[in-house]
Every structure is written in structure tokens, then in C-alpha cells.
Amino acid sequence: MTQMTRETLFNLAMMAGLILFPLWAWIADEPFMITLATKAVILALAGVGLNLALGLGGLVSLGHAAFFGLGGYAMGILASHAQSYSPILETPFVIEGTKSMPVIWLTAIISSGLAALAIGALSLRTSGVYFIMITLAFGQMLYFFAISWPAYGGEDGLSIYVRNGFPGLNTLDPIQFYGICFTVLTIVLILCARLAKSPFGLALNAARQTAERVETVGISPYKLRLVAFTLSGMITGLAGALFADLNRFVSPTMFSWQTSGEIMVFIIIGGVARLFGPVVGAVIFIALEHLLGGLSDYWHIYLGILLLLIVLFARGGVIGTLAGKENAHD
Amino acid sequence: MTDVLLETRNVSKSFGALQASKDVSLDLRAGEIHALIGPNGAGKSTLIKQIAGGLKPDAGQVFLQGQDVTALNTPARAKRGLGRTFQISALAMEDTVLQNVVLGALGAGGSPFRFWKPALKNPDLREVAEEALTRVGLQDHATTRTAELSHGQRRQLEVAVALTLKPKAFVMDEPMAGLGTEGSKRLTTFLDGLRSEAPILLVEHDMDAVFALADRISVLVYGAVIATGTVADIRANPDVRAAYLGDEE
Q1: What residue ranges of chain B are covered by domains with CATH 3.40.50.300?
Q2: How many angstroms separate the CA atoms of A155 and A145, rounded?
Q3: Residue A328 lies in a domain
Q4: CATH class of this structure's domain B4-81+167-245
Q5: Nearest to residue A68, comparing CAs of A315, A266, A206?
Q6: What is the pLDDT of residues A99-140, one digit of tens each?
Q7: Number of domains observed in the structure of chain A
Q8: Calpha distance B99→B133 (Å, rounded)
């Protein structure tokens, strides 16, 4: 048996916290606390998606809001047609809206995956600052498109009156919806943990450190990165669909570059390339927003100070500081 | 074509006014070590890049096993049997020694687009990787983080990664660079044995190693090959002495 590292212990503790806190809130009848936890879990999922590109692949994407927003709008468009009983498309064939979460998730994953494939195919021809800028530009394009598209609310966004359904569950019950989101996050974390150690993960990780070497063993770093970027977009897109369902509302804000920045902030707070980095980061972010947001509307100042301290003194983020260097022995 | 594995035909490359490769024609035959020497700035690295695929020549062709590979990129040339080591170790420093050779094994045998099973638990990949490590003498360092290796060990690992590909031809860019006398000697012995498996185009500054190993030597000066021949030919060549070897005696 492999010895449990400090990081594994930390991750398990984190998982326990994500089960116990909402359980406490449920017993104490604090539905708002459950909603906060749900928000943290969904944002963590968005971060886990970006972390695949950013942490493992070294792809600093400032455009992940594009996928988050696409996931959100996949939900918004499907659900709005379902609630108005009007089909999305009548010719050449009829596409009806839906209130079913699994169908919405699938649509979110596919549409954000296709978008990530297209955006990645173009953006990955650049690197460094240019990559950051071009991903940002794609994100902004979708943002302004969403604003100027009146069919789905334009700037005002879309309200969905009833949360979408999941077979066998009452999604309007906060703890049940939390359960859905937590389960999705857990599954994605398991997939990502497997992926990191798989041949693909090993090659992607090497391509981040030395692309030249990866090429000379006959593997194209471009293809590795494109696949990673696409998978990354799919996960963030799924998070977008859940986020829209949490708020029962979608708006162009989901596409904004501030959203991209926030997703990246989760990763930096928690620890870049750490499996649980974005989870820790999102939890801290939501906790600060709740605690400091009560004190001042300008709570981002404190977030900024925290970020500054982490970047200056704790490069590995919270996990790097608490669990030490990553263990290279697998 | 008597088993020429690697060949450049009239390869030229310019960067603005600087002509880095001038009509270079070289070949690498089965079983030999062909050393490429020349003063700093002679265009050795530029030539290596054109052979390996990182740079496209302005004119001329590169052949690998008789096939024109000029239009192919680095991964495609590697797939066709070109093994390369770098002057400055290009290794995944954060990864373990084993992970680095498994990467090589991955490129050699099968697709990196496998997402579920752990790479390090794949018996096929491990076998290739461990064999390569054993051959260069790094088998006891498999779980060491590459950044913690000594300079000499990193050079060994460079060679090990190239070995995993079971190449048809090696291109080695200063494998002895920075090695001590002892390390150089050991690597010299190793390369000596390796040539029967696949010939080596060896760029090297260590003249003891070059004279000990090379079947043929080509001398590159200002981007052009001024002489190709056996060790004795090259030592006796007055142009080479003037341009490069100097009057050491």
C-alpha cells in the first residue's frame, strides 16, 4: 500500500468538511448556508476544469468564462423554452426545450466542449501573454454576443422560475440539490485524479515543463494541449449549467472576464496543479465573500491582499503551504 | 544506397544576412559514429535542428532511412526513428527519473491519449523504461526527482530517454558537455557499444571523445562542411588545423 501523503489527508479532510458543513446546516435548518456551500462546490467545479488546463497543462486561459457562460446559457435556453412551451427549433425538425438536468448537462458539456475545441485550436498556436490575450478576446466576444442577443434576454439575462428536475430527486430542496452538485464534483475529481496519472496526464505534464522533449519522443504537444483545453472547457461548462440552476438565472455576467479571473483566483488561492486547489480556493472565496461582504461592499480589497500574500509568500497556495511540496513518487 | 540512415542534401539556412548552413551534405551510415565538429557559432546547432525537425531548411532536403522527411515536423521524424539528445538537458525536472523515461516509452509504443489507467502501472511502458534506465546505469534512481539528479546523471537520463524510442539513428548534441573526466570516459564506452544498434551523429567539443569514437568526422566552419574524413584525415587536414584544431603541438 502506498503511504498516505499529507496532501491526501488534507484532501480527505476537505471532503469530510464538504459533507459535514451542509449536513450541519440542514440539521440546524440554515438553508442559506446550504446554498452558500452549493455555490462553493459549483465554483470549485469550474476551477477544477480550469486547473486541468492551467495546472497540468500550463495553459493560462483568461477566457474560461466563455465555457462557464455557455453552460449557463445551455441551461437558460433549454429551460426557458420548456417553461414557455415553445420549441427551440421547428424546421427542419423540432427541438423542444427541457427541464431535465441530465439533458441540460449533456448539452452544456457538448456545447462548451465544441467551443473549447474551436477556441483552443486557434489560441494554442500562440503561447505566453498572447495566449492569455487571445483567450480573453474569445471570452469577451461571447460576452458581447450574449449582451446583444435579444432573444434570450440580452443584457437582462434570463430567469427560470422553477429549478430543473433530476429523476427521483426534489431539486428544490437545497440539501438535495447540494447532494447533486457535490456528487458531480466528486466524480469529476476522481476522473481528474485518474487523468493526472494516466499516460495523457504524464505527457501533458511533461509538455508543460519541456515541450521540446515531448516532441522528440514523437508526441505533439499541440494535440495534448488541445485535448486538455477541450476537457477543461467541458468541465467548466458543466459547472456553468449547475451555477445557472442554482441561481435560476443566467446573464451575460457569466461570460465576463471578471468571471474568468475569479475562477483563476480560486486556483491560485488553493494551489495551482493541486487536485483540490480550486476546491479550497472556492471555499475560501465564498467564505470571505460571505463574512467580509457583510462588513463592506469593498471586500475585494481584502481578497486582493490575501492574493498578494499568497503570490508573494506562498506560491503553492494553501495546499502548498499546508501539505508541502508535491510528492513526486507515485 | 548502402544503408545510409540519415542524410542531408545541400541543406542551406539563413537568418537575415547570417548564413547558418551553407549547402551542407552529410550522411550517417549503419554502424558508425559520425562526429560533427566546428568552432562555436559554426552552425552545428542550427544543422541539428534542421535534421531533427525544429527548423525547416531554406533549401535542400533531409532523408531518414531513404525517405524525404524535410516537410515533417519533429514528432513525425521521431516516429520514423530519429532519437535525439539535447545539449542542455530537456527533461521534466519536476518529474521523477522513471516518469521521464516512461514518457519516452509512451512516445515509442502507443498513444498518449489514454486517460484512465496509471501510466506508471502499465507493464509494457515500465519494461521499456526500466530497461533504458538499467542500460545507462540509473536503475537505482527511478524514483528520484529529476531536479535532484547531478549534472552527469541528467546527461545519462537524456540518453536513456532517447534509448526508449529504439531509434534507427541517433543525433546527440554534446552529450559530454559538463561531464567530468570520469563521466566522459564512461559515456564514451557506452556510445562505443551503442553504434552497432544505431549509428550516431555526434556533435561534440570533447576532442578526446571525438577522436576515440568517430569513424568519420565532418568539420563545420561558418555553416559549411570544409572536410569530411577519418580521424587521421582530419588531423592531417591543413584547412581544419587552421580553422579549428589549431596548432596544439
Answers
A1: 4-81+167-245
A2: 10
A3: no
A4: alpha beta
A5: A266
A6: 999 999 999 999 999 999 999 999 999 999 999 999 999 999
A7: 1
A8: 11
How many angstroms separate the CA of residue A95 from the nearest CA in chain B? 33
Interchain pair B110, A199: CB under 8 A: yes
Look up the CATH number of the domain holding residue A251. Answer: 1.10.3470
Q: Is the residue at A109 inside a domain?
A: yes
Closest CA to B53 of B62, B65, B42, B43: B62
pTM of this structure: 0.94
Chain A positions touching B54 (Cβ under 8 A) are 212, 215
The 8-class DSSP code of residue A197 comes to H
Cβ–Cβ gap B107/A218 under 8 Å: yes
Residues 6 or more apart from A20 whose CB is under 8 A from it?
none
Residues of chain B found within 8 Å of residue A198, distances taken between Cβ atoms: 114-119
Which among A199, A181, A157, A185 has a CA at the least distance from the CA of A243?
A: A181
Query: Is A326 in contact with B94 (Cβ distance < 8 A)?
Result: yes
Angle formed at CA B159 by CA B42 and CA B193, multiple of 5 degrees: 95
DSSP for B204-224, please give it.
-S-HHHHHHH-SEEEEEETTE
Mutate to test the interface with B, among A2, A52, A202 (most CBs of B within 10 A): A202
- Digit-coded pLDDT (tens) for A182-202: 999 999 999 999 999 999 999
In a domain, A330, yes or no: no
Q: Report the complex ipTM.
A: 0.92
